[in-house]
Amino acid sequence: MIMEKLRVGFIGCGRHATKNLYPSLHYAPIYLVSVCDIDEKKARRNASWFGAEKYYTDYREMLEKEKFDAVFIVCSPNMHKEISIDVLSKGYHIFLEKPPAINLAGIEEINKASIQSGKTVMVGMMKRFTPIYNKIKKIIHSTAFGEPNMVEAKFCVGPTKGAGYALLLDSGIHMLDLVTYLLGDVANVSFKKYQLDSLNSSYAIILQFVSGAVGTICISDQQSWMRANERVEITGQGSWITAENLIRYFYFSPTNKVEFWEPGFSIPNDENQSLFLCGYVNEVRYFAESIISGKVPEPGLEQIYKTVSIIKQIEPKENYYKEPQNYIHWESENSWLNVNK
Prior knowledge:
Blueprint: E1 6-11, H1 15-25, E2 30-36, H2 40-50, E3 54-56, H3 59-65, E4 70-73, H4 77-89, E5 93-97, H5 104-117, E6 121-124, H6 131-140, E7 150-156, H7 164-183, E8 186-197, E9 200-209, E10 214-220, E11 230-235, E12 240-244, E13 248-252, E14 258-261, H8 274-277, H9 280-293, H10 301-314, H11 334-337
Parallel strand pairs: 1-2, 1-4, 2-3, 4-5, 5-6, 7-10
Antiparallel strand pairs: 7-11, 8-9, 9-10, 11-12, 12-13, 13-14
């Protein structure tokens, strides 16, 4: 049986969208109608590369001239609120890249527009869709593992050239969302912060979950973009499981049996490729299949509102300040992303 395809428009042709989300469309029941970016060269490039019928430099013009089932919005978070409200007013479902807005008030406004329009907004939290964390979720909620009672998590990147709030909203949000996906809602939050200067921060965050479980999350921009930066360990009753950098886990069961998993990188299998391992393909495919089947995809705005509320408890001023970004890991891709060639 061939599933019908979702007609989509795509707003944003930047680096992240072009590297990770546009290629993932190929694996989902999606028909790309048109793309839009304020940079005409990028819009033209992505229309050509990914098979869109048309490209635009003004998303409002695109919304007026084209008809969609859903719209992907993957651009600067400063623009998310305005664009999302405009798209919802046209009656289209939305896949919205994280963070959905730069503050809680913005998320509330988008959610209000979503309710009024009757259209859903799914927030792109790709770690929920990675093979490793979905394998782990099944294990920690099995009878053998016992009730999860503690999580230790780390997500430490290289310099982000921004305020602490921006670090938490751009990077920390991944791990905060992931631990709630795995262990449930958070009841209490405390933290300690080390601030080297206005653009460099490290956080030790302590959580107590509604279930009674406890956890710590370390988030920092004082490590490296080019080395392993992610680790999660969850403890049950006489058992624990450790996941390292999306590519391996060790499960120590109550019977002292050790289970190990990692992808087979030498095998040309789609699911051993980065777009799958990082969760991008699965989140895009899940969104499309949910909309086609009439299901409400998760996480939605109300779920992410809870996560951003945790961030606001840590950084109440919601100062989303960042200096111009230029990362070392961009160098290898600049040649093929360069639209001026």
